[in-house]
Fold this protein.
Amino acid sequence: MGQVHLILGGARSGKSSLAEQRAKNLNLPVTYIATAQALDVEMEHRIALHQQGRPTQWQTVESPLLLAKAIDLLVEKSKVNTSENNSNKGQCIIIDCLTLWVTNCLCQQDLSYFLQQKQQLLKALINSQQYEKIHIILVSNEVGHGIVPMGDLSREFVDQSGWLHQTIAEIANSVDFVMAGIPLKLKVEQI
């Protein structure tokens, strides 16, 4: 059975580092699905720092909106490679980060766009669990620990992120919360 692992935490908590270390420990080919968009100089710098820290053999796919489609394509590619070459060990997919993906989707047309993309994402994650050699690690900011935001879009973002995290945590094999670089296991199944 494939594995889905959710890693939550605050900004600069060590979430991405934990995800990358877990991927390295699996000793599988890694594809990194990046959801960030370089819409300003500061974000370009952040993206460049993330890219510099990754092993050069890792593949990167940029998917700010169509996350489920990116996952489905990678799972299909892995299935084909595995059936053609029995020595293929499978693959690990890191998605970093769901927070930016939710923001990107909510800033499109209307809420129905995000809800449609969310359903497709959940379906892609459940489908990936059917394949033993697929490991997906999702990274996201836990934003529900603060006060309720004043603006409509901010409140919608916090609500939708929280509901998405709950649903993914339910289907995930394991869930960690990272604080000060230390992972706290919330749901335990080894990947």
Q: What stands out?
A: Residues 152-171 form the longest helix (20 residues). The radius of gyration is 16 Å. Helices lie at 15-26, 41-52, 67-84, 98-106, 111-128, 152-171.
